[in-house]
Automatic annotation (TrEMBL):
Keyword Nucleus: no
Family, as annotated: Belongs to the HypA/HybF family.
Top-level lineage group: Bacteria
Residues annotated to bind Ni(2+): 2
Keyword line: Metal-binding, Nickel, Zinc
Annotated positions binding Zn(2+): 73, 75, 91, 94
Protein name per the record: Hydrogenase maturation factor HypA
Originating species: Sporomusa silvacetica DSM 10669
InterPro entries in alphabetical order: HypA/HybF
Annotated gene: hybF_3
UniProt function note: Involved in the maturation of [NiFe] hydrogenases. Required for nickel insertion into the metal center of the hydrogenase.
Coiled coil: none
Amino acid sequence: MHEIVVVKQVLGIAIEHAEVNNAKKVAKIYLSIGELRDYIDEWVQRYFDHISKGTIAEGAEIILKKVPAFSACDCGALTKIDRNNMYDLVCSKCGSSKLHINSGLEFLITGVEVID
């Protein structure tokens, strides 16, 4: 259910983008979502369909791109994060457990396709 909060924000941004560009319709919204986010793709579209009714974004398609999750080590190595084993992370190069999430937490609107 937490998807609805961010989907409302996405809808507002898409409508604002369309209005500023004098567009009549929002056709597609492109999102990049990190693998570590707990958003379920199907629910993002469902909630969007529900809350966009009666707006210029009604019927718009949400295009999702998953961003892989990696951790960074002070030694400079990047290690792929296994979401199912996040608490036992060690650097793939030096074995250190002092890692920082480098990617995988993103939630970005990367594009809005509108119709004039």
